[in-house]
Amino acid sequence: xxxxxxxxxxxxxxxxxxxxxxxxxxxxxxxxxxxxxxxxxxxxxxxxxxxxxxxxxxxxxxxxxxxxxxxxxxxxxxxxxxxxxxxxxxxxxxxxxxxxxxxxxxxxxxxxxxxxxxxxxxxxxxxxxxxxxxxxxxxxxxxxxxxxxxxxxxxxxxxxxxxxxxxxxxxxxxxxxxxxxxxxxxxxxxxxxxxxxxxxxxxxxxxxxxxxxxxxxxxxxxxxxxxxxxxxxxxxxxxxxxxxxxxxxxxxxxxxxxxxxxxxxxxxxxxxxxxxxxxxxxxxxxxxxxxxxxxxxxx
Length: 299
Known about the structure:
The structure is a single chain. By secondary structure, the chain is α/β, with parallel strands linked by helices. The chain is built from eleven helices and twelve strands. The strands form three sheets. Strands 3-4-5-8-9-10-11-12 form an eight-stranded parallel β-barrel, surrounded by five helices. Strands 1-2 form a two-stranded antiparallel ribbon. Helix 2 crosses helix 3 (about 95-110). It comes from Hymenobacter terrestris. This is Aldo/keto reductase. InterPro entries: AKR, AKR2_Oxidoreductase, NAD(P)_OxRdtase_dom_sf, NADP_OxRdtase_dom.
């Protein structure tokens, strides 16, 4: 397993993070999966209060309460469940962030969060209020660092520079190269860590039937998947490893967070985490097969 420092923080994280969003069908099996992930060297575990109505956090809390200091727990805030349980509303108010943090701490059975992330963000958010809430939680020792999970460059630029933001979680893959245009260089210039999700492009790069993706036509998706398959065959590596290495090898990326639901997916993730970088000519080949796309909104 390889590890890296998240931005300018003191957090050492595994370069492969475990995304818990898909867990929840079988608590016993999920618990075993989390135990095996930690035994395999994964230290970064990402969840959110929104997932499974908080049960995802409860699962993490049960799994890691006996080894809390050995893992980096990241969770998210901002999506407030409606009283009737039917959906949620965006609420980035300082009062709600502080209230939600207390609830996440209880569910995670811990007295501090390593990374607390705003789960989205808009240009209309009360930026000063959001930052004040995070800073107060940090002063109280309830969170160590804070970040945002956003794919919106205009929102990211509101937070970087000028706040104590430590990380940004964004979407990146061979089929979603939008962050390469400006976001990743901007974050790198300001020492902000990057957690990349979506490396497999919802499975489209590793065998799922092609369909339009992020306004890219089916043909473009097929060409990218074919390039991944060809490289995988030539290098004798699994396609998921090739697609994942494209993200891990991208300058500025601290770690990639994969949604893991099965033992087979965990095995693939661990193999990726221990793999060697792609040769530069192979990366160039992949980039040639998948023309860069750019942000059309939220610029």
